[in-house]
Specification:
This protein is of the alpha/beta class and about 650 residues long. Among the domains are: about 270-415, 2-Layer Sandwich (Aconitase, domain 3); about 465-635, Aconitase, domain 4 (Alpha-Beta Barrel), CATH 3.20.19.10. About 30% of the residues lie in helices and about 20% in strands. A seven-stranded mixed beta sheet has the order 24-23-22-21-25-26-27. Strands 7-6-3-4-5-20 form a six-stranded mixed beta sheet. Strands 17-16-15-18-19 form a five-stranded parallel beta sheet, with helices on one face. Strand 15, helix 10 (about 300-310) and strand 16 form a beta-alpha-beta unit. The longest helix is centred in the first third of the chain and has 17 residues, at about 70-90. The chain is globular and about 70 Å long. Bound molecules: alpha-methylisocitric acid and iron/sulfur cluster (SF4). Alpha-methylisocitric acid binds near residues 38 and 134.
């Protein structure tokens, strides 16, 4: 039987485990990436492991999120990261060099290799045929220290592309269509593999829009083959030497097939407040806008920015709209400047932001109260933009550019002749903003400012726990709900005691105070608990508040791993469990139940009822939980 791309890459990197869907695998990791708001914690944890230099083929530390620097915190973090990278053997991509995923795609990704990153959109490099997976910072620290990465063998869905995209329809519409069909839970436990005769019509940056936003499906990763288009892109990046063809075998098997006729797609928009709430742009035509933001790791390539510049040429952004542009990388920005496209954007009244995440993570540019915002980004969770009541829409560069001029959502097909952006034969190559690691690490002093607090740790799991249900939430709770980001909170990422006061602040402003008063307790969620980002702070900060277990019907992959890594029990709740906020719960015989992998009995002291939950953890994860967290285990020299 032939192999698909996922199986081929995994087979060559398998340390232990069987390639059977759902089985836990240990994988050798070739490359890692970290970004600043998860990277400080990852490097602090790497330091706690006591390994002198990174043991990967390549590790890159990016600064792209925490860029406003309204106080000393961000800059202190950057200095810590720069000195830590120099000392411990990582490359450092300086602030201004661009968004981690865009820069990694351009300058570092290698077909056929494995990459884990402390950012959920690490699958972006799947556009090169590289298996990229998002992970918590501690898992990335462990990989940097040479440990394998543990992940369940995914099931593999073939997304079979036929035809070619029509005028004004873009790669964003492909992934929005997949989201429309499968939902934000549809990719959990899966790798989405794109193939079929339509594949060759998509360039690497277009593929990257699709693999990037595969994260919103909850997928473990997304992959394209490394074909002649990949070779063309890598050559244009002066990296043709890293290309090697990688395709699925003709008789490869997949768990299921999703057919997409590219020619039948139309411009699409995700409506508030979920990336899977997708409708045709035409249906929303006329929806008034106050803001349009173009950029983010999803749609900030040279191709996307040139498209927008062409749409705006000779026009002015609508008087009621604020249009922001954040190029994905310094390379993109330089090419826009060199080609004259930047001048067109400026002339049209676009507000030019840094090559960084910016408004995507609420680092500035919050829209006005109740004002609709349209973004070329990947997430439109309520409040993520910084304004809780601002309706947030997502679309591709074409819809965004056209709508910025019109002041309302438009179907770009109404603009007439489509725009064709030629793929550059050679991108501008200038890696001067990437600092290589020091050749004399002993001489490097790692600089720690006052914002960098120690990594909190928990002791071994108690056999008996009792506590209060602090919050009962519904389905699809995001990590933005659990641990919000934005300009006020992001600068506190390396200071867990300080950031903890914001846990669940968007859903319930009294949560942190209640958790402290009760001395910790439990959280109850619904299905797909913890969807969204990789931020381990959504586990670390609740842990610091004394949260001992999360009960939910199902968990998102990365958040589940983060809960385990920080010693919080992820417990699977039956459909109609009798639990309400404020109830007192009690569990005994925890250690034996975890060792045996059996169910746990929970007594609701308040109602007098008892119910059973399962742990849904692997034997290795049981050991982590028993030890009170992964760091404890690794420091004892256990895997
Ligand atoms: C995001 O898009 O939510 C982030 C900010 O990039 C996160 C990482 C983080 O919270 O630090 C992600 O997607 O993993
Ligand atoms: Fe940055 Fe947004 Fe991409 Fe996250 S999704 S890495 S915040 S651009």
């Amino acid at each position: 039987m032939g192999l698909n791309l996922t199986q081929k890459i995994i087979r060559d990197r398998l340390v232990s485990g069987e390639m059977k869907p759902g089985e836990e695998l240990a994988l050798r990791i070739d490359q890692t990436l970290t970004q600043d708001v998860t990277g400080t914690m990852a490097f602090l944890q790497f330091e706690a492991l006591g390994v002198p230099r990174v043991r990967t083929k390549l590790s890159v530390s990016y600064v792209d999120h925490n860029m406003l620097q309204t106080g000393y915190e961000g800059a202190d973090d950057h200095r810590y990261l720069q000195t830590a990278a120099a000392k411990y053997g990582a490359y450092f991509s300086r602030p201004g060099n661009g968004i981690c995923h865009q820069v990694h795609l351009e300058r570092f990704g290698v077909p056929g290799q494995t990459l884990i990153g402390s950012d959920s959109h690490t699958p972006t490099c799947g556009a090169l045929g590289m298996l990229g997976m998002g992970a918590g910072g501690l898992d990335v620290a462990a990989a940097m220290a040479g440990h394998p990465f543990y992940v369940a063998m995914p099931t593999v869905t073939l997304v079979r592309l036929t035809g070619e995209l029509g005028p004004w329809v873009s790669a964003k519409d492909v992934i929005l269509e997949v989201l429309r069909r499968l939902s934000v839970k549809g990719g959990v436990g899966r790798v989405m593999e794109y193939d079929g005769p339509g594949t060759a019509s998509l360039s690497v940056p277009e593929r990257a829009t699709i693999t990037n936003m595969g994260t919103e499906l909850g997928a473990t990763s997304s992959l394209f083959p490394a074909d002649s288009r990949t070779q063309q892109f890598l050559r244009a990046q002066s990296r043709g030497d890293v290309w090697a063809e990688l395709t699925a075998d003709a008789d490869a098997e997949y768990s299921d097939v999703l057919e997409i006729d590219l020619g039948a797609l139309e411009p699409l928009v995700a409506q508030p407040y979920s990336p899977d709430n997708v409708v045709p742009a035409a249906e929303l035509a006329g929806t008034g806008l106050t803001q349009v933001c173009i950029g983010s790791c999803t749609n900030s390539s040279y191709r996307d920015m040139m498209t927008v510049a062409a749409i705006l040429e000779g026009k002015t952004v609508h008087p009621e709209v604020s249009l922001t542009i954040s190029p994905g990388s310094r390379q993109v920005l330089q090419m826009l400047a060199d080609s004259g496209a930047l001048a067109k954007l400026i002339a049209a009244g676009a507000r030019l932001l840094e090559a960084s995440c910016g408004p995507c993570i609420g680092m500035g540019q919050a829209p006005p109260s109740g004002g609709a915002t349209l973004r070329s980004f990947n997430r439109n969770f309520q409040g993520r933009c910084g304004t809780k009541d601002a309706p947030t829409y997502l679309a591709g560069a074409e819809v965004c550019g056209a709508s910025a001029v019109a002041g309302e959502i438009v179907d770009p097909r109404t603009l007439g002749e489509p725009i064709a952006v030629a793929e550059p034969e050679a991108f501008i190559i200038d890696d001067a903003m990437v600092v290589p690691p020091s050749e004399d690490p002993d001489s490097v002093e790692v600089v720690r400012g006052p914002n960098i607090a120690a990594v909190p740790m928990r002791g071994p799991l108690a056999d008996h726990i009792r506590g209060t249900v602090l919050l009962v939430a519904g389905d699809n709770v995001t990590t933005d709900d659990i641990m919000p980001a934005g300009a006020k909170i992001l600068p506190l990422r390396s200071n867990i005691p300080a950031i903890s006061q914001y846990v669940f602040s968007r859903l319930d402003s009294a949560f942190a105070e209640r958790a402290r008063r009760e001395g910790g307790g439990f959280i109850v969620g619904g299905a797909n608990y913890g969807q969204g980002s990789s931020r381990e702070h959504a586990a670390l900060a609740p842990m610091a508040l004394g949260v001992q277990a999360v009960f939910a019907r199902s968990f998102a992959r990365i958040h589940h791993a983060n809960l385990v890594n920080f010693g919080i029990l992820p417990l699977q709740l039956p459909e109609r469990a009798p639990v309400g906020q404020g109830d007192e719960l009690e569990m005994s015989g925890l250690r034996a139940a975890l060792e045996a992998g059996g169910p746990l009995s929970v007594r609701n002291v308040t109602t007098g009822k008892t119910f059973e939950v399962t742990t849904e953890v692997t034997p290795r994860q049981s050991q982590i939980l028993l030890a009170g967290g992964l760091l404890n285990l690794l420091r004892e020299g256990r895997p």
